[in-house]
Amino acid sequence: MFAVLKNLGWFFQLEKKRYLVGLFFLIVCGGLELLPPLLLGNAIDDIVTGSISWGGLTQYLLLILGLVAVIYLCTYVWMHRIFGGANLVERLLRTRYMNHLLGMMPPFFEKNRTGDLMAKATNDLRSVAATAGFGMLVMTDSTFFLVVILFAMGFLVSWKLTLAAILPLPLIAVGMVIYGRAIHKRYTAAQDAFGVMNDQVLESVAGVRVIRAYVQEREDQQKFQDITDDVYRKNLAVAKVDALFEPTINFSIGLSYVIGLSYGVYMVFQNEITLGSLVSFNMYLGMMIWPMFAIGELINIMQRGNASLDRVNSTLSVPPDVPEPEQPVHVRTPDSVVFDHLSFRYPSSGEDNLKDISLTLKRGQTLGVVGRTGSGKSTLLKQLLHEYPAGTGRLLFAGVPVENLSKEQLHAWIGYVPQEQILFSKTVRQNIQFGKKDADDETIMEAIRTAAFDQDLHTLSDGLDTLVGEKGVALSGGQKQRVSLARAFIADPEILILDDALSAVDARTEAKIIEHIRTQRSGKTTLISTHRLSAIQHADWIVVLEDGAITEEGTHEMLLAANGWYREQYERQQLENHLSS
């Protein structure tokens, strides 16, 4: 049950001073709360015997008021320390979790649903944080405070009356063990269902246009209804067990009251205790209600925390598919990129997706990659990003294997524009500045002109400050591509990768962008994959892929002379352009 506290031991060690101060004042507060009932009992005995005076009564009242003030101050300190620690651990865990996700590569996200990852980052981390705050409170109150109250009842009033009153307590212990196991199992299932629901919402919102286009609104609503019903049923199962805690405790406390009051009255008549002592005892018995509830809350919150921490740790414990090298080699500039008999296979593939690729690309050169759909163009370009475990053969940057380079240095060299553009729900300006945070308007406009997006600015409602919407929904496909291109151009990377990044623009705009690339990226390496051969005619070297293997390579003129697939495709596209014009 307390595994969650053990697993959070690093945090308690880090914030040792905070928790020592908080627990100290919590214990002091618990001890001071025992004094008012004792003072009240003594005052009642003095009243019964007629030995109290106005001065004595005033003294009792001032003592009780003083204790209340001190208890108030102590409560403020321990609440600030302990509950502040809960907020702190939630922040630290969320930061660690986010950093872990940012360090993971595509294979990880292919196996994990986005909605479930979001559920862990919200609900689960909140449950874990609760154990560092409210959990510490109920653990202290259900142990130390309970023991202190029992001590006060037994030694300050009557040990016989105390033993009789606590006879029902074993009922609570048995119930808590049974309920705790059920809570852990059911809460884990409920959180898993919440993750599935999150994922469904994300898919529905992201694919709302497709859903409407295929008139699947009712089906999607029904699917979501089924999922929410499942979440409801599983959370209801948790609530059913949760609802058993309070009745069990109330029943046990009720028995304690009946036994304590009945036996206490008997002892008063037998002159074994005074009336004031019985009043004090009943007040202590009332004070036991919260520690009894705290036992139930302790089991509940610890089991929830355990279940949530297990889910979070299942993500945090996954090692990166591409680990950082222990001793990375520093390379100042990627003077060359060499594919040395490189073969590669995706983890989910049954055969090699790249086969014996050998290429050499010098700094400042442009490589064109063409081929049929599914021939391996994107796979070849993505090798430079080093997002998957290496296959056979080698990929070298300036003579250094990619496995020996740090990810930070490798990615700092590369500007990547994928087939599917990802824009953030910010303005056009902010999306472009993502490539260079401190870029001024002139630098931004230069990147926009390079991407041939300057003629579109006047069509946007607020120019550079136009919000692009979720994933760029407010822009057309061609506009999204050119904003993505501008974002890459403004970074002025050593290696620019354009993965079919001109597919949504017309031929004239494409020609303008290619001309800008040729003039402004002199001395920088560029790799372009495309279906339109006009985009790579200027390339220093062109490769044709088929089923992951290079079937043709050379310059544009060499490939035309070879009379292969490249020439056939070029002539077909030239004919299509002629007919369309």
Strand content: 5-15%
Residue-averaged pLDDT, rounded? 85
CATH superfamily of the largest domain: ABC transporter type 1, transmembrane domain
Named at the architecture level, the CATH assignment of the largest domain is Up-down Bundle
User: What is the CATH fold-level name of the largest domain?
Assistant: ABC transporter transmembrane region fold
Classify the secondary structure makeup into a structural class.
alpha/beta
How many helical stretches?
Answer: 22
Number of domains in the coordinates? Answer: 2
Distance between the termini: 75 Å
Membrane topology: Multi-pass membrane protein
Keywords: ATP-binding, Cell membrane, Membrane, Nucleotide-binding, Transmembrane, Transmembrane helix, Transport
Pfam families: ABC_membrane (PF00664), ABC_tran (PF00005)
InterPro entries: AAA+_ATPase, ABC1_TM_dom, ABC1_TM_sf, ABC_transporter-like_ATP-bd, ABC_transporter-like_CS, P-loop_NTPase, Type_1_exporter
